[in-house]
Amino acid sequence: MVDALLEGGRVSDRDQLLKDIAAREEITQTGLEGGVGLPHARSMAVKEASIAFARVKDGVDFGAADGKANIVFLIAVPATSEADHMKIIASLARRLIHDSFKSSLRSAASRDEVVEIISREVFDKK
């Protein structure tokens, strides 16, 4: 996911962002009920507030009480963008309470469909 942000020109330093994400996970794990992982970090390595998304067949343990996450959202924002960080997390959290949102992402047939769902549901871009 970090590599996708790097390749997209949204991140300048892969290793720094990975360190910042790991440091954030040390504070509090970011697993949510329903098979969702929400790792996030503010980092000097981030050029533009971004979300990366992945479906993970075998799941990743982000510390949720109900087990591993099979859908993961990586939120990466510039270190100075606390307001953007909180806005993205809040918007995403409001959508994640709806099973229909998670189901649509789990069943999306293409990357473009995932982008369309997240853009519409999280960022209100129709």
Short synopsis of the structure:
Helices cover 45% and strands 23% of the residues.
Structural commentary:
- With 126 residues, this protein is α/β, with parallel strands linked by helices.
- The protein is 45% helix and 23% strand.
- It contains 5 helices and 5 strands, in the order ααβββββααα.
- Strands 1, 2, 3, 4 and 5 form a 5-stranded mixed beta sheet that branches.
- The two termini are 25 Å apart.
- The model has no long low-confidence stretch (mean pLDDT 92).
Order of helices and strands: HHEEEEEHHH
Low-confidence stretches: none
Which CATH architecture? 3-Layer(aba) Sandwich
Residue-averaged pLDDT, rounded?
Answer: 92
CATH topology: Mannitol-specific EII, Chain A
- Quaternary structure state of the chains depicted: single chain
> In percent, how much strand structure appears in the residues?
15-25%
Q: Calculate Rg over CA atoms.
A: 14 Å
Q: Kindly, what is the distance between the CA atoms of the first and last residues, rounded to a whole number of angstroms?
A: 25 Å
